[in-house]
Every structure is written in structure tokens, then in C-alpha cells.
Amino acid sequence: MGETAIIDYGSGNIRSVARALEAAGAREIYIGAEPKRLQKADRLVLPGVGALGSCLEKLRAQQGLLETLEACVLEKGKPFLGICVGMQVMVEKGFEYGKQRALGWFKGSVRRLNPNKLNSDKNAYLPVPHMGWNNLQQLQPHPLLQGVTEGEPVYFVHSFSVCENNPACAIAQVQYGAPTLAVLAKNSIVGVQFHPEKSQHTGQKILANFLAWRP
Prior knowledge:
This protein has a single domain, classed as Rossmann fold. It is built from six helices and 14 strands. A hairpin with a 5-residue loop joins strand 5 (93-94) and strand 6 (100-101). It has helices at 14-24, 35-40, 52-61, 65-75, 85-88, 200-212, and strands spanning 4-7, 29-32, 43-46, 80-83, 93-94, 100-101, 108-112, 130-135, 137-138, 153-158, 160-164, 170-175, 179-186, 189-192. The protein is an alpha/beta fold.
């Protein structure tokens, strides 16, 4: 297993993710955004906390970062994991505090959760943000979820979610008033809307699977 790079662009719970990766078996971890170091890494992790637009702005402010990520991930096929907003930046556009142009690695958009749209029972009101545990429903097999049984809980903190236009890329969902995408994947790229670093033993399984993954 080579080096795992956690991309530090000034947004995200970096240290928590690093500790979780170490517990999952990562031997070498680089934290930073230096293009030359990212190019040497075996796999890449992009955490994200906060608003989509702010994260995109910070990513674009790092000289050479996006070009390096596209070269590593889209051209060389290095395994890439986006967490929470780190997953959201990978689609085409978002609508959080205005419209944002995102990276476009996946088709789709990021929109505000509306869990009560079809809910007529006021006693069953679901708050936004969606904060807490929810049970994964796997839509199709993927190495990231190997050994994760149907219904295992993972931890969410989000007000916006990805609406993916390609069902072939939707790997898992949860129910929060309506189906909400939880895992997105294609080629060497995976994204999780939940926080594996906060998801205890299930999160550890998922991170260990990512570290062992050879697309």
C-alpha cells in the first residue's frame, strides 16, 4: 500500500479523516495540496465541510490543484474518495446560495434536501440539516461496500444532496423522506455523502475497502 494523500485546501475535518484512515490501515499519509506530492500519492481523499460554493472557491484558489487532480484521477485513474461536500463538488452544478459550476466529473446537480415534500404527517416532520445515523441501502455491488451488510448505519450531516442523472453511478442510498443518494461511483472515483470517519465500525470497513481498492 502506497501513500494516501488527504487534500487540504482549507476546508474539512482533516485530522479526523487522517486518524480514521490510520485506524483503517493507512501506513503513509500526506496532508496538503502540493501538486508534486499529490502526483506521487497512490490514492487521494477529498474531505469537505461547509457550503459547496466556498469549497469550490478554495479548491480553485490553490494553484495547479484542480489540474493535478484531473491528471491524477481522470487520466491516470488513481483511486479517489470524496467525502460529504467532497462528493458534491464532483457533479456539474450546485444550487447552494446561488448557482455554482462544479467539477463535472459526474452528471447531475446538488440541491437542497426537501424531505417533507411528500409528507402529510406533521408528527413525522424531518428536519434539515439531515444530521445523525441512517441505514445504507445498496443499489448495486461495489468494492467500497464489500463486507457492509444491508441496513448498516452511517453518519450524516448535510442540508444538500447530489441528484445524479446516471443510475449506473448510484451505488447506495438512504431514506430521508425520499431516497437520498449516499454513495456515487464510476471508474476510479467514489463519493460518499456521509462521514465514514464518524461512522464507527461501518466507516472503518468502508475506509479499509478504499485503501485496498485497485480499480
